[in-house]
Write the structure tokens for this entry.
Amino acid sequence: MQLAPAPVSAPIPVPRDVQAQLAGAVERGVRETADWLEAHPRGTVEQLTQHVMQRVGDPPTGVALAQDHAASVAAVAARAPGPDATAVHLDSHGLAEPWQPTVDAYVARVGADQARAGLRLLEHARAVTTALTFPVKDAHARERPFRVHADTPLLEGVTHVRGGSFPSGHESTAFTHELVLAKLMPDAAAAARDVAEQVSFSRVHAAAHYLSDIVSGAYIGAAGATFAAARPDASVPDV
């Protein structure tokens, strides 16, 4: 199944070590949230937020921060017109548009009536993930790399840079989409993961986020999707 952000001039090369870090964060987010749910079967989103804050921890400092900066410098150095256009497009449209082909295919496959439950799950998962993401952002208020380092300028055309850098909201939403849509359309799982990686690394490519921001976002996206699937009727606080 073809699943790609549109329009896209060229994919953004995602380093293998970044793919591995994202995959590890997702796996950990699913596992640790499932364990938390087992221990707190009636736990609320607000309570899960506190757990997520503890598990995500603080933004890197010292050597880890230097590594974060180095990853940003390398991403900026790899900019090229095609990937740059992709990053700019995903900045504006990456929260929903890339997933629409899979949503449409799901509805076409199962029919509108049967699809309603799956689409409700997706909407619920998005809401949970948003409620988990922004308290962490607000707690840390981390400056974005382009504001801190002269050698990582913001990619021209990128405008979604309000709020704290840690964690990435594009990223947490991306991996929530990936996990829910993979559950609804298992044959689209690999393609959905590719898109989640593109959305995620586009933020580092643009110098809008550090690598640690997108890795923490992957964890939160996995936590939100896992909680939503287990607790489809849980109330979600406004953020």
Observations:
- Confidence is low (pLDDT under 50) at residues 1-7.
- The CA atoms of residues 193 and 230 lie 21 Å apart.
